[in-house]
UniProtKB/TrEMBL annotation:
GO terms for cellular component: membrane. GO terms for biological process: pilus assembly. GO terms for molecular function: fimbrial usher porin activity. This is Fimbria/pilus outer membrane usher protein. Pfam families: Usher (PF00577). InterPro entries: Fimb_usher, FimD_plug_dom. The lineage of its organism: Bacteria, Bacillati, Cyanobacteriota, Cyanophyceae, Coleofasciculales. It comes from the Bacteria.
Length: 400
């Protein structure tokens, strides 16, 4: 590989002492004739130098201006191409705006072109919709008029995006429609083009394109169904105790980026490798007494790898009751430890009482337990949660 030097300089001045928001940037890049980027087999450098200068400023009446010039020094005998453009834009609030673009271009053959473009747009953020109309006129007499409507669902995953467009040019009337959806298990993109010739000699054309993508992943001995994988992925598998619950992964706007549902485990299909990523677990409709366990995981995946995470436990009881001593006095403002006598692998839970001896704790399941108070005498009692108990279970008064 051959390298080439590249240099750039940017100057920006913003802030309270710059009410017109003036900003200037300049960049200059040089590439040697044998320069190749990573992944290229042969060098392809038609230009030795690439100069870009840009200046923007707010004018009167809240009109924003942007003047840009680009010049490229060609190798060989070709003409050096350049482009000069001026953009004026104005926003009127409520999603309404207009912009005017003036462009002069010279290509490598030496041909010049001037182009004028006028655009009006109106957005409706609460509805997720936008409407745009534009007219373009070039120096060669070509005129194009376009009208476009777009709708984007507020949900990143699970929502739909659609658009309708109509274009008039010198040769035809073009009508387009698009419908796409990014789902938890698959993506699809449907496009249709209807082209109606204006000269009456060519035939009308209808073109329909449909793209569908899905993926089957495997990690840690478990399978998952997902939308297409970009690089590394995370497979989130539920414990059998919560497998029938809707569990969301990484909240995003009004939805989640992945979820556990009737179709199986959740899959995060776009996780950057060699970077620490956080996986958040939420179950907004989880019944009282059920336990998700750890709710935040930090992972560091390798390149094109899969990470398995298991969430949830078999706990399904929220226990409450009253603790009293044998003399009838409440066990007031004390704590203790609950240990399962049936499942030695389960983690002990800490219990606290109020002044009246009332207590409440979650993360339990049917079984036989021992309660030991954190006192000098370490009083102990045993109790049992019946097999049919689920959700809130009031055990009544326990005497220790």
């Amino acid at each position: 590989f051959f390298t080439a030097p590249a240099s750039s300089d940017d100057y920006t001045r913003l802030g309270a002492d710059n009410p017109s928001q003036r900003a200037f940037s300049l960049s200059l890049e040089h590439r040697g004739s044998n320069f190749m980027s990573l992944g290229e087999i042969e060098p392809n450098n038609d230009f030795a130098l690439d100069l870009v200068a840009s200046y923007r400023q707010k004018l009167f009446g809240d009109i924003n201006s942007n003047l840009q010039f680009r010049y490229r020094l060609a190798r060989g005998r070709e003409t050096d191409p350049y482009r000069l453009s001026l953009r004026l834009s104005r926003s009127f609030g409520n999603g309404l705006g207009v912009n005017l673009n003036l462009t002069h271009t010279q290509n490598q053959t030496g041909s010049d072109e001037q182009r004028v473009s006028l655009n009006f747009f109106r957005s409706f953020p609460q509805l997720g919709q936008s409407l745009q109309t534009s007219s373009n006129i070039s120096s060669d007499g070509e005129t194009t008029n376009q009208l476009t409507w777009n709708y984007t669902d507020s949900r990143t995953v699970g929502g739909v995006r659609t658009s309708l467009g109509a274009t008039q040019n010198a040769n035809s009337y073009d009508f387009t429609g698009r419908l796409s959806r990014t789902g938890y298990r698959f993506n699809f993109d449907l496009n249709h083009f209807y082209i109606l010739p204006r000269n009456g000699q060519q035939t009308t054309r209808n073109i329909t394109r449909f793209n569908f993508g899905t993926a089957l992943v495997f990690a840690g001995g478990r399978f998952g169904w997902s939308r297409p994988i970009d690089n590394s992925f995370v497979l989130v598998v539920p414990h059998p105790g919560v497998s029938d619950q809707l569990i969301g992964i990484n909240p995003s706007r009004d939805n989640f980026l992945a979820r556990i549902d009737q179709l199986g485990p959740a899959v995060l299909p776009s996780v950057a490798p060699y970077l620490v990523s956080q996986v958040q677990i939420e179950a907004p409709d989880l019944p009282i007494g059920y336990d998700l366990g750890q709710s935040v995981f930090n992972i560091l995946p390798t390149y094109s790898s899969g990470t398995l995470i298991q969430v949830g436990t078999d706990a399904k009881v929220f226990l409450r009751g009253v603790l009293k001593f044998s003399n009838g006095e409440p066990v007031s403002l004390l704590s203790g430890q609950i240990t399962s006598l049936w499942d030695p692998d389960s983690k002990p839970l800490v219990l606290f009482t109020n002044r009246a001896g009332k207590f409440a704790t979650e993360g339990l399941k049917p079984g036989h337990y021992q309660l030991r108070l954190f006192t000098e005498n370490g009083e102990v009692l045993e109790f049992e949660i019946p097999e049919e108990a689920e959700g809130i279970y009031d055990i009544g008064t326990l005497v220790i």
